[in-house]
Structures
1.
Amino acid sequence: MSLRRKHRRWYRVSRWALLPVFIALAVVLVQTVLSTAPANGELPRLVDEEMSASGVLHPLTAVLLNFRGYDTLLEIGVLLVAVIAVWSLDASGKSGHLRLRLPSPNNAALRVDLSIILPLMVLMAGYMVWIGSYRPGGAFQSGAILGAAAVTLISSGMLPAPFGRSRRTRLALAGGFSFFMTVAILTVLFKGRLLNYPMAWAGTMILLIETLLAVSIGAALAALFAGVAGIKVDEPGSPSRREERGP
Amino acid sequence: MTVVSIYGITGVLLFVMGVFGLMTQPHLLKKLLSLNIASAGVFLLMVALAYRGDKLDPVPHALVLTGIVISVSATAYAVALAARLQKITGSPTLEEPAVDEP
Amino acid sequence: MIPVLQQPETWLVAIPALGAATTFAFREQGRRGVVSFVLAGIAISTAMTFAKLLLRGPYSHSIGGWVAPLGITWQIDGLAAAMILLTSLVGVMISRYALEYFGSSAEEQRQAAYFWPLWFFLLSGLYAIFLTADIFNWYVTLELSGLAAVGLITLSEKPQALTGSMRYLLIALCASLFYLLGVVFLYGEYGSLDLTTLAARIQPGSVTQVALALMTIGLIAKAALFPLHFWLPPAHANAPSPVSAALSALVVKAGFYILLRLQLVLWPVVSTRYLAIGLGALGAAAILWGSAQAIRQSRLKLLIAYSTVAQIGYLFIMFPLLHAGWAGDPLWASYAWAGGVYQALSHGLAKAALFLAAGVVIHAVGDDRLDSLRGLGEKLPLTATAMALAGISLMGIPPGAGFIAKWLLLSASVASGQWGWAVVMILGGLMAVGYLFRVYRRLLTARDVPVLHQPPRRMEAVALTLAILSLVFGLSSYPLFYLLRIGAPASVGLYLEGLP
Amino acid sequence: MSAMLSTLDPGQILLATVLLLPVLLLVIALVPGMADRIFGLAPIAALPAIPAALWALFFPDSPFGAIELNVSALVLGARFALDLGNAPWLFFTALLWCCAGWFGRYYLAHDERRGRYGGFFLGAMAGNFGLILARDPAMFFTCFAVMSFMSYGLVIHDGRPASMVAGRVYLGMAVLGEVLQFAGLVLAIFPNLGTSGLENFQTLEHFRASDPWVAGLFIAGFGVKAGLLGLHVWLPMAHPVAPTPASAVLSGAMIKAGLIGWMHLLPLGLDAFPVLGGLMITLGLAGAYLAAVIGCLQTHPKAVLAYSSVSQMGLMTTGIGIALTAPYLVTALIPAIVLYASHHAFAKCLLFLSVGLKSVRNLTGWERVVFWSGNSFAALALIGAPFTSGALAKAALKDAVGRAGLPSEATIITLLTFAAAGTTLLMLRYLFTLRTIAYDEHHASPVGVWQPWLVLLTGIIVGPLIVALGVFDHAHLGSLPFAALKGVIPMVIGAAGYGLVRRWLNGETPIIPAGDLYRLYAATGRVIGAAFRPRTQTGAAAATSGIADGFRRFMQPVSRALAQGEQALSVWSISGLAAGAVALILFWLAQ
Amino acid sequence: MTSLDAWIPLLVLLTSFVTGVIILALGEHRVAARTALNLIGAVAKMGLVAMMLWGVFHGHEYQTRIPFLPGFDLVLRADGMTVLFSTLSAGLWLLTTIYAIGYLENSPFRRRFFGYFSFCVTATMGVSLAGNLVTFFLFYEMLTLTTYPLVVHRGNEKSIKAGTLYLAYTLGGSALFLVGMVWLYSIAGAFDFTETGVLSALPSSTHGSLVIIFFLFMLGAGVKAALFPLHAWLPSAMVAPAPVSALLHAVAVVKAGAFGMVRIVYDVFGIEFAETLQVLTPFMIMASFTILYGSARALVQDDFKKRLAFSTVSQVSYILLGITLFGPLGTVGGLVHLVHQGVMKITMFFAAGNIAETLHLHKISELKGVGRRMPLTMGAFSIAALGMIGVPPLAGFISKWYLGLGAVESGNNWVLLVLAASSLLNAAYFLPILRVAWFERPDRVWEERHARGWLEASWWLVIPPVVTALLTVLVGLFAGSDYSPLQWALLITGREY
């Protein structure tokens, strides 16, 4: 019996053997959920108490950008890493991984639709950042909308595809993170603690950060999309567009 | 059985299912989907836990948000990688087994 | 300026991260300058962190000024410092190496353009892991470093590298989820993510146990403990050599580090010794299995990668020894503690040296088949020396740093009467001899090899430096132990308190 | 050095000269090109010993009388002494060496390897002198070994196959002897050891055997050299093949080293070991007779002489045996044995040299007359014919034995007496076979070769007398019946016996080959050796490669299993299974 | 003076270590610089060791302490035994270096060879200077590792195999040693080597463990000392170049094993305590068996170096025999044989190497008449061989004499039988070599003498064996003098009881 065939058999057998193990796992976990102690409510209370010092009004934003702002900082880093990693997979930037067939950029209806939708989306994104300080919203939501706008543009063939790797794009991508990190380190200079915003400035700074972050997140999401879905345009003349890329 | 328990149990079941899928589905995209299901399960549990007590706990929500971003990033990268793999190896699955005879 | 100087630990995270963003945004322009700046920054911040630690003793840094459990707190003590030391040493060396490794060809320049940001993010993530004491923050940092690591592996466009990294990615993500699930359960039970707070609150109970078990699973998969190690060899062996070095020396240590922290803080309260013995058993199995696999390999980097699988096993043998100490003479636990940490450090240095040396070999002859090594000892004497010196540490032979680790672990196991671990460790040492000398004897074989490319001297020098470092730490353990003693938990600090 | 010299008194300087002169010449001979020149100086090396011995013998109270020389730095603290006890030995030994060396100058003048010969000769001489003079065990043992090993070079001098075989046997036996002596010495010291255990071991007296086992070791150890029956096989093999002057000193002087060893280290006069004594007496007498019989069957005169030596040594062994049995007799026996040894030395040396002489001189005219009469005289002396030194020696021996009061005393005396019959037989055989030695004109020597021969001939008459005067009080000497005509009876029996068997002895090859028991020993050795001899591969190598093969065979499936195991673990579902299982186990363990 | 005293042990190590490093750093073709370095290093080391010799004799303390682990220092210290062994090593290193320079003329990999050669000597000196078990183990392992490149120096299939075997054995032994060491420290804590040992104060409940520890140590060291059945690496390691074999057999590896045993028995356990534990007899028996076994195996080898190798197996066990014979005399015998065997064996290997190098003869049966072609070499060999047999007054006799006395003193008269049988066997395998070389006619025409002059080979090759042969004579002949190894051994022994 060849090894390969042997493995297939292992594969089949082990699949069935997995089932009881995972059922047991499920049982254990369910039991654990059921026996979890009731919340002690300490943390929500602390959040409440410190809201006034957080510079924002919405607890979620407060946690996200102030109390646990460091998590968020790193998480933006993760996003940036993902972009870099995706790009690195296709170091030349010439071809994407998936092929999408694009509609013609000259489609009038599409153009009209986009010309309405896109400004709305940008507006919405700005609003989301603004509202984040006292209602659900914030940089991520905003960034997601911006990203979606970019994706729309890309898939309609209006944005150079694949999403350009020009320095401008890279600055947009890295800008949010860099700014956030710079602020973080500047607060060390002034307050001796990472991300310790001066109380009076907290709100402003968070807003500033969120704005920049939103741009970066949007860019990142779009870049991820573009990186995964390299666009192939069948029409003549399109190669010139395809070749456009960063230096 | 409280609402929290129902969400929570759903969460962990999703988690187990996701992991099971990851282990058993050969196709890479299915593996990724399974992973996403699993992470959705965990996030669901987190959100459910936030609803305990008299006051809504904002911390798990923030954590979930963070988790989602991470999950998105990772998934995007994984998809790109899977696509790249398929392009190079011609197969949407990982070789089984990975280790060759030396 | 004074506050900056007072908080050098923040720069450890910030400088590489900003370096990453810069090298990403600006690519070739001034890369060498940026890299030099980052490396200098790392070196200075590391030194200052140590200085601060020595002057002030263990300290914490509440991020944003929010004390735990509301905010995220960093705990800087001897253990963190030891890992930071390892990261800085290896990190700087790998960076220096990478400057030479990526040549001037267009292809290599493109690789370099992605290497630097990913690599700096990885470094930043690692520092973040070692600094923090927040269980959720660990999840984030693990993901940051994990994703960067996978990205780095795929810089090598070999199909094996891609499949390896795909596996690694999937396993890492899955492991993170396990860990996260555990974190969620712990949060649900105790309402805090801060390690110190948790330590104060934690009680034995089924939820706690399950949570810890879940976290443990996730972490041992990240640390590539047998039998969850299978992703490691293909990934580490097929990555570009500086990346392999970073992965084996640093990244796998992250999982171990977190587990150790948890163990130290939480487990004395809740854990049973059987769990520790279980981990130890896996460690022992890893030693034997990894070594046996390494002996079978016919490719240098695979051999080294399997050696990593084996060496990680030693780290986990520390756990049952710790428990035996807690149950018996605290001195034993302190032996195990010092030995385990030393193992992490010594393995890091030695393994980095080995992988970097392997990179030189590949550079010179084009592949890493063991048989290509024949006669290279004469052609690449520095590299051969580096391999030899690094091997001394891995084999656990004095004056390698690995000897000190093994000595302490052996002492703990013999003193506590747990002979099984001792036997496995000794066997592991002998098997290490077995696989390493498969390399050396080829190096020493008489054969006239035409070296295809003379590798840059600097690459060789870096590998050699790391190897020598692994001996320097083996000649005297005091410097590291002075560091490690700072803020060592009382449960493991007895031995180090004996320091003059 | 001068300071060291100044602390020495003249006697010590003389003693040092006796010891060092041969060594010095030997060292010079090692310089390339010097060996052939030094060769001729060999007799001179022995010269200082003769006056020194005589002085000590006759003027014991003078500054040269009883000399002691201690060199603590040498080996384990060397001590040398020259006194009444060893002066007779030194006297006849030195004379023999001198004559043999002198003879050798002529005899080996054309030999291309004479330089090498000279070196070994000097070395053996140094050893021989040293062992006579040594008073501490290490030095004694050292000199004994030096003498033994140096003689090897003499035995195999001509390099012919027979010589090589003989040399091998000689060396083997010598080493065996050394080893037995060594064991004896080591065992002997213990009862005399101080409590601290680290005191210096002063003199040979401390090493006297105090229990029968140790004595047995000494008897056997020195018995090799002394040609004790059973250990004598090297003698008849080595003597015929060695160059004549070497045979002469081997048989005349060196063979006596065994006796000296016995005298030093057996507890003569202290303890009675009747069993061992009886054994020695038995072996000695048996040797005396058996050697005569076997010797008679030889065809080469030197082989006959060698057997004669065995036979004569048997008589001396008997004397030692009696001394071991009856300690009170020692004072009488020892001088008798010394006398006998010296007498035998002179006679045997002359006989050996005669064999050589005949081959290098074309004997005509007066030379012929002198030759045969000298030979006959020596033969008669050896037999113990009345008025010869032999008669004197035998009389002294028998006289001493006669005072023993042993139960078997009469038998022993009778046997001693009639051993002369055997000796007669041997001497007749010798003279007969000597005739067959032909003149070899390639080695023709000048007339000077007669000089040492003539000195020795004089020595046969004078030498034993000098010794006797030195060791006996003169009154006792006068009372010895050395002129008794009774001694003729065994001679007649012997002669008659030879007449009877003579016709059978005319074959070309000896009926029993020289070395008699050697064949037996060699065969035994081969059988034992065969058991140890490797088949195709040596044992450990075979075992090692066997283990390696086995290991490889064992490792093949292990390696395969490892490969499959690792592959299996990399299958998702299996690793998942493993992970799940680990998880469940951890859950369980955590409870 | 005092401050310098603390540095001397370290300097002794550095003289060869630094030499090795520089040699490795120099290029392959820097022959003159390398030769000069080698000689300077060797002479400097000799000088320092001589200084220590003088100092120890006059009661100076030489000790370097380097903090290593909390509770454990690396201690380099010169005591009587150290000086005994380091004098031997330093002296023979000088000679071997000279020899190796001549031997390896024009052969490849000389840089590597001399580099590791120097390290090897550093390790050996470390072994001798080690003041506690950890330090000892450190250098012991260093020795193993640095010898490996020398064993496989030729880099062919055969030498690689031999190297693997060598490693398998020696590192296996080290593992045993390590276990013993860890165990012992866990019972007794940290301690330095002390005359008369340190363990006798331990409670009797630990004695069971101590017995096992003793076995672990002795077997661990026994591998290097080629104790049967752990000896198989030694004969196969003969593929190494002659200077390596010489060093391996006479000074470095084998001797380090034996020296380790000495340390364990005397300075860790203490001979009297070891006797109380009744652990000496098994090793006495093992040593005796090895002595006979090695000799018997040597007897049937026709390969010159193989015969010498098995002879080493046999001879080194004399040392163990000496130290396991309870009583000062046996100790003296063992200690003095440590030196004597080294001097004699190195002579033989030099000679064998000379013959192989000059005449390309490797089998004993081919040596016919070599004595005439190479009288100095063969003369040196003969002296050494006779010494090995125990012919007085050469070095081997002195050893055997004390061993014999020791056997009787300790009441093990049967050991005498072993000594006797071994001497006979020694004679049986050495004397034929002498016979063949000196007294048989050559069956071929030798090549012309070495072009360089009147010597039979390059003087680099001839001087060392002649010197060591002279030493063989001198240490035996003048054993009674105040400066002989014997007196030194007596001095040491006086302190051990």
Note: The mean pLDDT of chain A is 78.
2.
Amino acid sequence: ACGGGDTAQKSNAQPSTTSTSGTKDINWEERIAKNQSIGEIKTMTSFNYSANIANANAWVADELGYFKELGLNVKVMPGLSADAMKMLAVGQLQMAHAGTAGEIIQSVGNGAEIKGVLAMAPVGLIALMVLEDSGIKSVKDLEGKIIGYKGAMPANISAMLKKGGADLSKIRQVSVGFDPTILKTTEVSAITVFKSNEPYQMEKLGYKVRLLDPQDSGVQTSFGIVGANNEFAAKHPEAVEDYIRALLKAHEWIVQHPDETIKILDKRASGNFNTDIETNRLKVETSLIDPAKVPGKGLGWFSKEQWQSEIDILKDSGISIKPVTADQVANNSYVSKVYDGDKLIWPEQGTKK
Amino acid sequence: MSQSVTETNGGAVLSEGKKRTKPLSESKLKGAASSFLTPLIAFVAFFCLWEMIIRIFKIKMVILPAPSGIFTELLRNFSFYLPHIWTTFTEAISGFFIGALIALIAGILLSQSRLLERVLLPLAVLAHVTPIVAIAPLFIVWFGFGAFPKILLAAISTFFPMMINSIMGFRSIDENNYEYLQSLHASKFEIFIKLRLPNSLPYLFSAARTGMSMGVIGAIVGEMYGGSEGLGNVLTVAANYLQMERMFAAIMLLALIGILLTNAVKVVENRFLHWHSSSK
Amino acid sequence: MSQSVTETNGGAVLSEGKKRTKPLSESKLKGAASSFLTPLIAFVAFFCLWEMIIRIFKIKMVILPAPSGIFTELLRNFSFYLPHIWTTFTEAISGFFIGALIALIAGILLSQSRLLERVLLPLAVLAHVTPIVAIAPLFIVWFGFGAFPKILLAAISTFFPMMINSIMGFRSIDENNYEYLQSLHASKFEIFIKLRLPNSLPYLFSAARTGMSMGVIGAIVGEMYGGSEGLGNVLTVAANYLQMERMFAAIMLLALIGILLTNAVKVVENRFLHWHSSSK
Amino acid sequence: MSYINVENLSKRFVRRGQLTEALSEVNLEIEQGSFVSFIGPSGCGKSTLLRIIGGLMGAEEGGITVGSRSPSEMQSDKQFGFVPQSPALFPWRTVLQNMNIPFEVNRKSTTDLSDAKGDPIELLHSVGLGDFMHAYPKELSGGMKQRVGIARAFASGAPILLMDEPFSALDEITRELLMHQLMKIWEQHKKTVIFVTHNIQEAVYLSDKVVIMSSRPGRITSEVHIDLPRPRVESVIESPEFYNYVGQLRELLRERW
Amino acid sequence: MSYINVENLSKRFVRRGQLTEALSEVNLEIEQGSFVSFIGPSGCGKSTLLRIIGGLMGAEEGGITVGSRSPSEMQSDKQFGFVPQSPALFPWRTVLQNMNIPFEVNRKSTTDLSDAKGDPIELLHSVGLGDFMHAYPKELSGGMKQRVGIARAFASGAPILLMDEPFSALDEITRELLMHQLMKIWEQHKKTVIFVTHNIQEAVYLSDKVVIMSSRPGRITSEVHIDLPRPRVESVIESPEFYNYVGQLRELLRERW
Ligand SMILES: Nc1ncnc2c1ncn2[C@@H]1O[C@H](COP(=O)(O)OP(=O)(O)OP(=O)(O)O)[C@@H](O)[C@H]1O
Ligand SMILES: Nc1ncnc2c1ncn2[C@@H]1O[C@H](COP(=O)(O)OP(=O)(O)OP(=O)(O)O)[C@@H](O)[C@H]1O
Ligand SMILES: [Mg+2]
Ligand SMILES: [Mg+2]
């Protein structure tokens, strides 16, 4: 089952297509009963309890009972995306959240049978941060400087450097820890950051910073990814669909209730949480999502081309993976079905409560 | 003039033998107090120095927080830390005992045969050198989010020093005593139980001290990569939030657990090693 | 009947003393070969088992790569790994020697005085229990991206087991020998050099084996959080890209370094510990 | 054939290319229930021979049987009570606990030694260590340690006693006391005693046969049968026969030293 | 006042609440250059007294001076050559290297002992260990180890020798040899020798004075001055005076045992 780019293009041109019309006639009673028969669905967030979009969706959906409303017995677990991908691959998880599409692609390239089924925003979250007074305004200015990365250099940054015409041999790339203030305290001039996190931390500490955003040089990636185990998705396509449906429903609520959202997460983390930082994260990420929405499509929808370009970015940045196709790594058919046009389909209040 | 045997000191001896119970237990109490007091003083001195350095050089909190801030954080949110302490503590200690047990068994096998040692020791080195930081995520994937993978990591961390020391300890026997047991046709097992094991106690207790703190580290690393409990988790989350005071509070608590556990080893050691020259 | 002393075996003795040089060096060669061969066989068996498990249970590469894949990756890109191996190796070994030296000095101090032990040991435990994973990033800030912070981390990792074992080793002396030296009014330093140090060698060599592999781990962790060189860096980058074969290739190389270094300890040990009952 | 037969036994130690011939072509017969002493210069191989008889060591050449079996078979049958030259006390055990070692490892013995076994506590009292039952070895004097080793061998009830200079660290009176105890046990239980000593009087007083060894290489130079009446009373020491034996042995020792 | 003065010395050991009175009110005078033997039952405190004289141990009560100084001062002046009851050989050193220990730690001595010092290699040959110079202690027999300890004390050149049963593991002939060597060194270098033994003949043959101790508590019961001509020749053993002394000592020992 594959949504396919063509359909996407078509529906793009024709917003109120009938392609989703069938879903309007969902027999909810039957669907809920079917969902209930599946048993527990395990899912894992990409970064514990932090207010990343998609993660927050899952926690809120759980808190507000959206999963239950659809008959899904979902167990949301805090985790890290690197683990989550592996557990998804072996079927210990049925669904899992990834930070970036790249993680799904790399997992598939390593033999994992999983697919991306939701991308909250077709826009990159990772950027390069420099101090405002560093004089670095473009990637070319980074020549002769040191860039710090966490774990590994993200592909979209590598792509940005290339596109900007920087001489990579003149840039030293080093792995660094969690602390963004090393821009001030060490000879590192730029570090990879989440737009929704480190800039705010730096601001709080009183440092003025500037972001070099791959998005600006046309390096398009995405964030807020949800992946599904292939076997599970093939067996229970409706469950995958309804999982997404609950997340998106939760998102609508989150946009309305950011403060309550933070409270919910704080409670879930039993205090192992930073309200300021997470409030900011949520704010920044929700603000990134909206303008990036594919016109005429519901939130979270993505195209095949989008994934293809992410595959290409990975390849170009020299990360060796086995060749994969866009169809192997993503399937937008589930997210396509949760919308009527760009309106989320949700069972009438009568069926529940 | 350093004394080479336990001796009475001066007048105390002259009192009657029966009256000795009281002063003895008193001196025991005193000993216990001083054995708590001296390290306490050391710590207070250490933290004062630290605090002074922070203030004199005006070091920012993101670089290194002041002890005052760390302790304030600790005291204010103590109930927050409590369950995490318990989690890490139980994981570390279970891991330690499992790791120690396996290490002893391995030590017995490897000390019995040079061939087995040549075959298995490199594999043990492989297991030990493989950074737990690298395998922790795999363990989470293989064994889930419960306490098990953390206990396993603690056990692996404990294992190696225990095994290496136990091999050496089991072999460092007195030839005369060994020969005497042989003359009784003691089985390998009896020689182990009666001679090798008690003889290796100084080695085992040394290793247990190292192993205890390594067990704590193993548990922490496991917590860093999976689950939402334990001081390891508090540590990473705090690090990510740049909550340096909380991060260092977690480190303090870890150190406390480590010190507690190594001191527990010491207590057991004093009980079992009074006959050894190291206990003078 | 197990023999309790070095003995000649049967006929060989009857040959002339002078002719013994040749067969001796031959048997040495043979010994060296077998001491390489046996672990090799162990490893081959281990990897075969691993490969079989992967094939039988069809385990996916993201979970655990097959040895065949790992070795293919290793051989194909060997020149890529070479400089990283060298970096990690030198850092680990420098760290080991620095850590061991400091540990010896600390061991001397602490073994001389119970008071000093009570004061300083808890601080040492604090340093050891503090997870290097947590302080590695701080070290980068303090000491930059060169080899220094990694060497420091390797030294810290080496330090603790070396110190704990050296304290016990320095104390586990023979009372008679100690008394004899005292009768000569040997200074504390002389007693240390002539009695405590040689006597502690079995402890020190055991600790060195643990310390060597811990030094490697310390270096790796440093590389994970700072810099662009070394197997630790290769490891994290690969882990983050989910390049499992490369990740495990790095682990293999780390294990190789660890095994090499612990074997080096063994060689030195054989040289210095022939008099000890453990060297039978 | 006698009880213990040593035939053409040779034993060598090699250290860094240098050869020590500890024993060379030793031939020896020992009757069951007899008391045989070994005497000879320091380093001549007495302890080594004792170890070989006790099955603690193999030899390069020659054969040895004890009760028509091999030493290690006899050892596995718990036939030997060994008093090593340096008292093998376990430092983590009290004196009494050290006494108990033979009982703790004797469980699998097929021979029933229960008759011959002594009571550890009683024996400790009889060697003058009643007050030190619960002391640790490091709290004992040299002679006290040695007495524990002797008492332990007595307690074990083993039919063959291998005693390597057991009285060397004892004063004359304690030594006499223990000698009498040894004689009593030996006579009562018909033990075979192999006894190494440097004290010629002691050897003559105790033995049926004294074996004289010489060193480099260690070999047996002569055997002297002591035909003094049994049981030996103290006054025998003053008899001319006793005096003669001592003189003869001294001569033999001096000759081949 | 004499060279070594012990006054009212008492020494106790306590273990788990139990008290051992090792020495009780010991009074003793030893002249410089004299040869004094101690004899007494096993465990009576001979080794303990030797340790206290050598400054290796303190006492609870009483005073002790050696050459009007305290034992530890004398020790720091490298005045003592100590032969412990169990030969203190370092297992990682060869015999020769063990011989060299006193020289290695004697650097800071203010007294010049160079005259009195012996050549280690020569001394090893003279105690019959020439072939075992490069052997390790574990390759030696019991008596050989003891001889290394004695040779080491001879080599050190210390003016006061504290010898704790030095000949206990040696055969008669080796023992005689070493006794003569000891006498020679003692006479040549005017050493003061404090000698613990269980052998009454040995004590009489060697000593100017024999001190007899009894045990529980350890105390000195009598002192016997040996007025036999010096230098003592072997034939003295057969003299009636010698015989008398031996008998007297044996009596004294037995009386208070
Ligand atoms: N483990 C060993 N390695 C090498 N040589 C040894 C070993 N044990 C004994 N020897 C040698 O064998 C010879 C005989 O030793 P053994 O202990 O049997 O002598 P002994 O007759 O008991 O002497 P002593 O009366 O001094 O105890 C000695 O020359 C000694 O050096
Ligand atoms: N470290 C110690 N702890 C407790 N008691 C001790 C210690 N050392 C010696 N003693 C006790 O002191 C007493 C005297 O011991 P010492 O070694 O002086 O005897 P000794 O006369 O040398 O005997 P031997 O002839 O057997 O060597 C003994 O009763 C012994 O148990
Ligand atoms: Mg012997
Ligand atoms: Mg003594």
Note: Chain A has a mean pLDDT of 86.
